Amino acid sequence: MSGLRAAPAVDPDAARRRAQHILSDRRYRSASTPRPLRGPLHWIGDRLDDIFRPVGHFLTRLPAVVWISVAIGLVAFLVWLVVKNIRRRVAAPATGKPHRATPDALEDPDELERAADAAERDGDLERAVRLRFRAGLLRLGDRGAIRYRPSVTTGEVRSTLTSERFDDLAGTFEAVTYGGKPAEPPDVAAARREWPHVLEETGRR
User: Fold this and answer.
1) Are residues 136 and 165 in contact, defined by beta-carbon separation less than 8 angstroms?
2) To the nearest 10°, the Cα dihedral for 181, 183, 186, 192?
3) pLDDT tens-digit map of 24-60
4) How many angstroms separate the Cα of 92 from the Cα of each of 66, 89, 103, 132?
């Protein structure tokens, strides 16, 4: 123990002054940068706080049922927007132009017959036969002679009407529409002539 020296006493005041001297060096101090917008930003923050603090207090006092109703309303609105957008895209043609009903999509027999007359004048006899046949089916449906629907088949109508005139018209229609038979002027003339007789037959039953 005699070989060890006692550590010299440390003066607390001297140590404190030395530490303060070291920390006063620029390396240990943050640089003071100019802040020209500090004042305006503080002013804007104070004004926003004055505006939104009462709103926040009001919203926090609303019952849970109100928040649930608002959430349901927002979800319903978003669903409505999505469905509306999907329907608009489906209804619009690929070209992006507004959709217009073509004669083939019409459900008015008078319009279909006028379109058939126009097709006949243009020399499109196949289309004239097809449009006049569809007009005839619509008129049969309007009279209650058949249960018309866009997918009704000629076989179903044949079995319902049991009309030789209709059978002849249906045979021409199927040959032209599905069999690749070129439509000829007699086919168009027969459709124009025989359809009124078919309708007259159904009216007498």
Assistant:
1) no
2) 120
3) 666 555 555 556 666 777 677 777 777 767 766 666 7
4) 39, 5, 17, 27
Q: If you ran DSSP here, which 8-state letter would residue 26 be given?
A: G
First to last CA, the chain: 138
| Helix (H) or strand (E) run with residue 18 in it | helix 12-23
- What separation in angstroms does the CA of 170 have from each of 38, 103, 194? 88, 20, 11
Q: Which residues contact 183 (CB under 8 A, 6 or more apart)?
A: 125, 126, 128, 129, 176
The distance from CA 58 to its chain's CA centroid, rounded to whole angstroms, is 37
pLDDT tens, position by position, 145-176? 999 988 899 999 999 999 999 999 999 999 99
Rounded to whole angstroms, how far apart are CA atoms 107 and 147? Answer: 14
